[in-house]
Amino acid sequence: MTKPDSPLRPFVTTLVPYDLGPGPVGVHRGLPSATLSITLPEADPVEIGWLAHPASRRHHRAAVAGLHLDPARIRQSGCTRGVYLALSPLGAAALLGVPASALAGNVADLADVAPALADLPERLAACPTWPRRRALVERSLLAGLARHGEPGNAPELRAMLAALSRTPRVHEAAQLLGCSRRHLSGRVRTQLGVTAKEYQRLVRFASARSRLAAAGTARSALADVAAASGFADQAHLSREWRAMAGCTPTGWLRSEGSEVRGSEA
Fold first, then answer.
1. CATH number, domain with residue 249
2. Where is the HTH araC/xylS-type domain (predicted)?
């Protein structure tokens, strides 16, 4: 995580080292989230594609993934370590210079999205320790923030996303904001590339993911996780999990093992 007083704090929710596991090939299931992600492999390129569409798999020296509602397959041969970042939807414009909507449903090369960061993987490879890698990434993002800055509509969008995160239905969020559902839905779709309802699904799913990682594989915990995350019941949680993760909640916990306590997908 970024330092409490860092200017990056509103835009970077996660900044951690990752390791996809022992052996010559590391494979990880990338789950939907309410954040965008940047994957910076330490050495070898990372292969990312949608789990249900093998033809979508591409190798990236560094990858940026927009908001998505389908599971991804992340595969890294050779060195399976790197740096993982999660950005808030506002972080895309403020740090990379592109709106979140331009990246929705896609995985792109970091060099194509933010040319100023094209050499970041090579610079990271020359850093021998995690503190130095972290400091390099933070300096690079701060330089991006200085170039682009927070967009003028950021307060409005931040309020909309906060309202959607606090309510189970879009019309309830619109009531909190004092606007029409149509206005809220249109603004969110334009800025994020997903609908307001889809963003609420992502928020619930991300909440369930964190709670499941903490609760473990006990089936008795699933009902509690469902209720605490805003699902109607355990069956609702299970249906959403199959749709957005491509597996059951317990199946994900078993396959990912200790990785579920690490970086977001």
1. 1.10.10
2. 154-255
Query: Which residue range is the domain that position 228 belongs to?
Result: 207-261
Query: Which one-letter amino acid corresponds to residue 224?
Result: D
Q: How confident is the model at residue 21 (pLDDT cuts 50, 70, 90)?
A: low
CA gap 220, 212 in Å, rounded: 11
Considering the domain architecture, whether residues 188 and 166 belong to the same structural domain is answered as yes
Predicted structure pTM score? 0.90
The tokens for 36 are: 């965008």
Residue 196: exposure state from Cβ atoms within 10 A (0-12, 13-18, ≥19): buried
Beta carbons within 8 Å of 63's beta carbon, 6+ residues apart: 37, 38, 39, 46, 48, 107, 108, 109, 110
Residue 201 belongs to a domain:
no
Residues 11-45 as b/e (b if ≥16 CB within 10 A, e otherwise) read: bbbbbeebbbeeeeebebbbbbbbbbbbbbbbebb
Q: Is the pLDDT of residue 260 over 60?
A: no
